[in-house]
Predict the structure.
Amino acid sequence: MSGVWQTVAYIFRVLSITYPASFGDYAAWFVLILVAPLWTNAFVYMVLGRMVWNFTSKAKILGVTAWRFGLYFVLLDITAFVIQVYGAATATTGTNEPENKVLQGLHIYMIGVGVQQTFALLFLFFVINFHRTLFKERLTNETSRALPMLYAIYAVLTLITTRIIFRLCEYSKGLTSTIPNHEAYQYCLDSLPMLAALFLLNIIHPGRIMPGKDSNLPSRKERKRDKICTKSDRNGILPSIEPAVSVTSQEKGY
């Protein structure tokens, strides 16, 4: 979704350059390019939740279970998303809006960006704790598969932080900032880091690190029905099916 939104944003950017009088095209580009990277945040939040399920013995980090981890952080990400969308939309409500309203929108957006970075730092704290847990529980061939994905998450967080710092610097001087006048900054410090993050997450894809249905988080119904708390609990249930199958096959042989 992050890649789709940013692609659509640049389509509107081309349209706004082609038709300078079209404020709608410019507004669409401005809002989409500002909020699209939040989808990348949400993705890594959900990925770590699955990693906690697949690679820790207790399926929890700092008391937060794997299935609730992604939920909590995605809700936090949505909070930052709403603040940023509201701020960006307020700053682009029209060409004849007073300067103080535009500044108000930019300030609200910057608050949203600051909230996003705060949540990213909180997430980093959990990532580091997960990293320590892997080594504390002794790496095996199974758990060592988590390391490439873990390093990819560190890199993506660094790229997201780079982009956030750029956005804060861009609007720190309000409407007098000269940064928006040079698109090279936009390409190098916003779009390029996000493209690199998407590229990295496709090279080290979670589906390769955690393949198969068994790697998926159990549903609430499954957890209650089978009393599943960890991945080993689910794996402990599966072998019980095999004797029944073998008996059936023997009976068919008679």
In short: Strands lie at 60-61, 64-65. The two ends are 56 Å apart (CA to CA). The longest strand covers residues 60-61. Confidence is low (pLDDT under 50) at residues 237-254.
